[in-house]
UniProtKB/TrEMBL annotation:
CDD domains reported in the protein's UniProt record: VOC
Domain Glyoxalase-like: 16-111, 127-228
Protein name: Catechol 2,3-dioxygenase-like lactoylglutathione lyase family enzyme
One Pfam assignment: Glyoxalase_6
Alphabetical list of InterPro entries matching this protein: Glyas_Bleomycin-R_OHBP_Dase (IPR029068), Glyoxalase_6 (IPR041581)
Organism of derivation: Microlunatus capsulatus
Length: 231
């Protein structure tokens, strides 16, 4: 299914965006960490390979990291030291099977160390989203993507979406007690129709105008996302 084949009432994943104070430095970090190539786009950077849905934008912003991120990336890694060598630091090394780390600007990420023969070229493992009600949030997005919600067999406090159209990894929702307080530094873009997201309960933050060709919305938890009109 191509982006022009998105059914009415549904969305299709497009790409990811990461905010950074120093976009050049962060683009080098994320390109190396994810197995992508970096291309400058003015003050921003575009990270790409031969799969369009692997695209990640690193966008320059003035605001530094001030609070724990509501959205973070989980990575396949050959070794934690590889990411440290790129500028990351370890926050918690005892959370098996992952290591909680911070990127060069302090944003959280989780590294899952793999055997060399199991390390993929593209190394984004999954996208994690904090929520005061992970089940509710997952069901909201599942409805727009047209997929089901998956649950762990042990009844853990998280759930996930798999098989999302265009999305090359799983989207995980996990319960947290703290509310969202600032704009997310990581967000996702989708193909679709803004009116479909609004009808499902999204909020319009900024409509397309002379400066941008997409609509900026927020889901019921306040997580920002951008809709690129398939028409």
């Amino acid at each position: 299914m191509s982006r022009t084949d998105v059914p009415s009432g549904r969305l299709r994943y497009k790409d990811l965006c990461v905010d950074a104070v120093d976009a050049e430095r962060m683009s080098r970090f994320w390109a190396s960490a994810l197995g992508l190539a970096a291309e400058r786009r003015g003050d921003n950077a575009l990270l790409v390979d031969d799969v369009p849905e692997h695209t990640l934008w690193v966008n320059r912003v003035p605001e530094p990291v001030t609070v724990k991120q509501r959205v973070h990336l989980d990575l396949h890694a050959r070794a934690v030291d590889d990411l440290v060598g790129l500028g990351a630091r370890v926050l918690d090394g005892d959370s098996f099977p992952w290591t909680l780390m911070a990127d060069p600007e302090g944003g959280e990420l989780c590294a899952f160390v793999r055997e060399p023969d199991r390390l993929p070229r593209y190394r984004l493992y999954e996208l994690a989203v904090d929520s005061p009600d992970a089940e509710r949030s997952a069901r909201w997005w599942a409805g727009l993507f047209g997929v089901g919600v998956e649950h762990p067999s042990d009844g853990g406090d998280f759930c996930w979406l798999e098989g999302v159209p265009g999305m090359p990894w799983e989207m995980v929702f996990q319960d947290v007690p703290e509310p969202k307080t600032v704009k997310n530094r990581i967000h996702w873009d989708v193909w679709g129709r803004t009116e479909d997201a609004l009808a499902a309960g999204a909020t319009l933050l900024r409509a397309a105008d002379d400066d941008i060709r997409w609509d900026v919305l927020a889901d019921p938890d306040g997580n920002e996302f951008c809709v690129f009109d398939v028409r």
